[in-house]
Amino acid sequence: MAVLCERLKLPEVARLAASWAQQAAAEHWTYSQYLADVLQAETTARQTRYVVSHTQMAHLPFHKTVDQFDFAFQPSLDERHVRQLLTLQWVDAAENLMVLGPPGVGKTPLIVAMALQAIAQRIPVYFITIQDLVADLRKAWEDNRFTTRLGQYLRPRLLCIDEVGYLPLNTLDAHRFFRLVSARYERGSLALTSNKGFVDWGHVFGDPVLATAILDRLVYHSTILNIRGDSYRLREKRRAGMLGEAAAPHAGGGTPMTVGVPVRLKRRADDGFCALAWSFRTVINHRL
To answer: Which residues, by range, are in coiled-coil regions (predicted)?
Structure first.
C-alpha cells in the first residue's frame, strides 16, 4: 500500500490508510465511504500545501483576509461590493482593481486579501511595490535582458503593485512601467494601490501625456475603490496614548487630500498634437 501511494504521490493516503481502515471496519463504513474520505483528506492536504507554497512565492508583505478588515472604521467602503470582488470575476475577465486613498486607510490590506483569495482559487499571484518593480526592470534593462524579465511579470494572472505615487519615477523608469502596463493590457489583471489622485499622476510619472496613456490602459477595464477615511495606524497610536489631540484627524490645519475619479476620456488639440485629457469629479477625503 505504501509503495503504491508513493508511486501515485498520495502521501496523505499513505499516512491515513491503515488507521482509517481499522476505524472503517469497526464502524462498518462502506468501501465507497472509506475511499471517499481518504481521497478527500488527500485533496485537502494538497490544497493546504499549494496555498502555503504559493503564498510564499507571491511575496505578500503580510497575510490578512477581508474578514480581518475593519469596515466599520472605513464607512466609505461598501463591504458588499468588496466581498463581491472576492469572487474574482474581474480577474477572470483580465480587468484591474485600483485602490486609492491617503496613507494608512487599508489600501494594501485590501489587495493582499484579494491576492490570498486568488491563491486559494489556484490563480498565480505576485506582489511587489512599484519602487522594487521599476528597480528590477531598470537592472534588467542595463543587463540587456529586459524582454525576458518583462515576460516574467506577465506570467501571474494577478499582479499586485503597491505604493504607486509614493515617490515620483524618472522618465526611463516611467516608460518601462508603461511597457509593463501595455503588455498586460487585457491579458492579465493588475491590482494597484495609490495615495495620489489621478490628477497628480502626471507628476508621479514625470509626463502628463505618459501618465494619461498609463491611466487609459488601467482604467478602461477596472474597478476603482476610493477610501475616504482615517489612518488605522494613527488610530492605534491614539489608543495607546502616543498621540495628543493635535494629531486627531479633524483637529484643524492641514489640507484635505483630493482624489480624482475618472468620469470620461476626451481628446483635445494642443500645440499641433493630439493629447488625451481627463475630466475629473473631485472627491474630498477626510483629513489625516
So the answer is: none
Pick from 226, 247, 227: nearest CA to 236: 247
CB 100 within 8 A of CB 152: no
**DSSP SS3 for 98:** strand
pLDDT in tens, 92-148: 999 999 999 999 899 999 999 999 999 999 999 999 999 999 999 999 999 999 999
Residue type at 99 in one-letter notation = V
Residue 191 CA to residue 184 CA, distance in Å, equals 12
- Distance between CA atoms of 234 and 245, rounded to whole angstroms? 11
- The matching CATH number, chosen from 3.40.50.300, 3.10.580.10, 2.60.40.790, 3.40.630.30, for 65-254 is 3.40.50.300
Contacts with 161 (C-beta within 8 Å, 6 or more apart), sequence order: 128, 129, 130, 133, 190, 191, 192, 193
Pairing of strands 222-226, 96-100: parallel
**Location of each CATH 3.40.50.300 domain in the chain:** 65-254
Q: Are 162 and 128 in contact, with CB atoms under 8 Å apart?
A: yes
CA distance 126 to 114: 11
- Residues 61 and 47 sit within 8 Å (Cβ to Cβ): no
